Amino acid sequence: MTVYGVGLGPGQADLITVRGKRVLETVDTVYSPGRLSRSVVREYVPESKLGDLDFPMTRDPDKLRAAWREAGRAVADGAAEDDVAFVTLGDPNVYSTFGHLRRTLDTFHPAVDVEVVPGVSAVTAFATALGVEIEAGTGLSLREAADGAAPTGPERMILFKVTDAVATDEKLTAAGYDVRYGRRLFMEQGETVVTSDPTEVAERDYYTLAYAEKHGLDRDLATADFDAETERSA
Ligand SMILES: C[S@@+](CC[C@H](N)C(=O)[O-])C[C@H]1O[C@@H](n2cnc3c(N)ncnc32)[C@H](O)[C@@H]1O
Question: Where is the Tetrapyrrole methylase domain (predicted)?
């Protein structure tokens, strides 16, 4: 039997993939690591199909390993009988708890088949929500910026886990970046905020990201010449 890692997308229930929905509807048990992912899953499966796993709020590596061994055992036991799914918001392979589960299964339950159903990640959904275009030929880096951190270097960055937007903004602005923030993008749970003003997202909320771009970047695009063309013909 198979353990499916299913990406739910950013939060709105209709942003799950057709394949993800089909898997949720056909497996015997669906495990979810949090309240938010659970509320998306509940759009597709009855409460009785939800599996129970305990995820401790700790960074202690020993406690984490113990919790994942326990979770891995429960999921592997479930998969001995039938197909099961473990869901994550966004994509299962992007900054996700699913990685812990897969490593645990690979090590302690190598006979279990694991299959991933990708999901719409915040990595791509942010662009639409924030009105950003990552043009062909340009780079985009992923970073984390928890607790006021402000990584610098790349010309364009997505920053995850922005929990102190005001402190992060101060440092990024000083380093020459223009920054936009997105909170609870494409989510039904909670208020969506898109802003360049960090004070609007000052209150700590885990589901906040930022897009930072070096001020005054050159955009070398064929279609940028439309401006010059229309000016000439005016
Ligand atoms: C542990 S990562 C999970 C990423 C997820 N697996 C994905 O592919 O989108 C969580 C971080 O992603 C960002 N994030 C995820 N979904 C988001 C959303 N709908 N709106 C804003 N930020 C989001 C936040 O910065 C949050 O702290």
Answer: 2-163
Q: Is 6 in the pocket of ligand 1 (CB under 6 A)?
A: no
Distance CA 178, CA 214 (A): 6
Ligand 1 mean position to 229 CA, how many Å?
41
Between the alpha carbon of residue 110 and those of residues 3, 63, 67, 116, 205, the distances in Å are 12, 22, 18, 16, 37
CB-based contact 30:41 (threshold 8 Å): yes
Q: Which of 140, 116, 109, 131 is nearest to 213 (CA)?
A: 140
Q: Which atom of ligand 1 is nearest to the CA of 11?
A: 19
Note the pLDDT tens digit of each residue in 154-213. 999 999 999 999 999 999 999 999 999 999 999 998 999 999 999 999 999 999 999 999
Q: Which ligand 1 atom is the nearest neighbour of the CA of 119?
A: 8
How high is the pLDDT of residue 195? 98
Residue 206: CB partners within 8 Å, gap ≥ 6? 161, 163
Taking residues 94-117, what's their average pLDDT?
A: 96
Q: Is 160 in the pocket of ligand 1 (CB under 6 A)?
A: yes
Type of residue found at 226: F
Compute φ and ψ for 38, nearest 5 degrees. -60, -40
The shares of helix, strand and coil residues in the chain, as percent rounded to the nearest 5, are 40, 20, 40
Domains of the chain: 2-117 (3.40.1010.10), 122-214 (3.30.950.10)
Measure CA 8 to chain center. 10
Give the tokens for residue 179.
Answer: 């920054």
